[in-house]
Specification:
Elements lengths: L4 E9 L1 E2 L9 E2 L28 E2 L9 E2 L6 E2 L17 E2 L15 H21 L1 E30 L8 E27 L4 E40 L20 E15 L4 E6 L1 H6 L5 E7 L11
Antiparallel strand pairs: 1-4, 1-10, 2-3, 5-6, 5-7, 8-10, 8-11, 8-13, 9-10, 11-12
The chain binds zinc ion (2 copies).
Length: 316
């Protein structure tokens, strides 16, 4: 991304008001002394003019900010070696302070604390009602299982992909233009004019610009095509009680290779424990490992939700 740029719009006179007479809107650079009463300029009284009162300084040569005479306190040009008011040498005189336009102060707010408090109260409530657990003695009364054996067949299917990602073996390609992504493109710039006190009775107006960008769509070819794939064709199901799982047998394929051939696909098992707490029978679907860990008739400590009484199957 391009960096911000600055452009000078010219130098203008700062203004000052005389504190010894009624003279106002005196020029910071031109009037080093009050034209009305002759008092030296008090550089701490400088201010930025309104747009209507702006006086341009043509061909301004900037030599640095004014320095304050350590002896009499008047502001002197950076070029001066001795004070024009009292004649004292300006060797180690300090730079005058610059006028800045104050930024509007942000309002402090307690809103954040209220939100934080609300979140904490809500969290405690959720914990109390939904998360809090207690242990309950239960007996494992039964093991149940449901087994699904998928059968896949090699057959022609329809697919879609970006043209450069279409796999080999694809047939009947048909493509159309479609937006694939976006990219950032330049879209002009945002500018604002700032005033900068130069410290020598003038200020500079500067146009500060930062580049702006926008997102633009990038099109590509989106294609549909036909291709041969191993595809889920059938599900063989079985279920039963006890710890021995009988997976459905995969029948031999009629066709050995190419379209029409069949093979065993994914195996999906659901393993259920039945638990009795003396009053109710509860069931939990668990992993095969957890399911095999317990024996029928075994006494266990199971966790239940304190509020609802529902069993926490994930902690078995
Ligand atoms: Zn005056
Ligand atoms: Zn002086």
């Amino acid at each position: 991304m391009d960096k911000a740029r600055e452009e000078s719009l010219g130098h203008y006179e700062m203004l000052w008001d005389c504190s010894h007479c009624e003279a106002k809107k005196l020029l910071g650079k031109t009037h080093r002394h009050c034209p009305n009463c002759g008092a030296p300029q008090d550089e701490t009284k400088r201010y930025f003019p309104s747009d209507a009162d702006k006086v341009k300084v043509e061909d301004h040569v900037y030599t640095g900010g004014d320095r304050r005479c350590g002896s009499c306190g008047t502001a002197q040009s950076a070029k001066a070696k001795n004070c024009g008011q009292c004649g004292a040498p300006l060797g180690d005189a300090k730079d005058v302070a610059r006028v800045t336009i104050p930024k509007p102060a942000k309002k402090k707010s307690n809103l954040l604390w209220y939100i934080l408090f609300g979140v904490v109260v809500f969290g405690v409530l959720v914990w109390f009602l939904c998360i809090r657990k207690q242990e309950v003695a239960m007996t494992v009364t039964a093991h149940r299982w449901a087994a699904v054996q998928e059968i896949e067949e090699y057959r022609e299917v329809g697919e879609e992909a970006w043209k450069n990602e279409v796999p080999t073996g694809a047939r009947q390609l048909s493509c159309a233009r479609k937006q694939r992504s976006t990219k950032e493109v330049p879209d002009g710039e945002d500018c604002k004019v700032v005033k900068r006190d130069k410290g020598d009775g003038t200020f500079e107006e500067v146009n500060q610009c930062t580049p702006r960008t926008k997102r633009e769509g990038v099109d590509d070819d989106w294609c549909s095509y036909r291709i041969d794939r191993w595809t889920k064709a059938e599900e063989l199901k079985a279920n039963g009680q006890g710890v021995e799982v009988a997976w459905p047998a995969v029948p031999p394929s009629q066709v050995q290779t190419g379209v029409g051939a069949r093979r065993a696909g994914k195996k999906v098992g659901v393993f259920t424990l039945e638990l009795n707490d003396g009053k109710n029978v509860r069931t939990c679907d668990v992993s095969e490992g957890t399911w095999k860990k317990y024996k029928d008739g075994q006494e266990i400590k199971a966790k239940v939700r304190a509020q609802s009484g529902s069993i926490v199957c994930s902690e078995l």
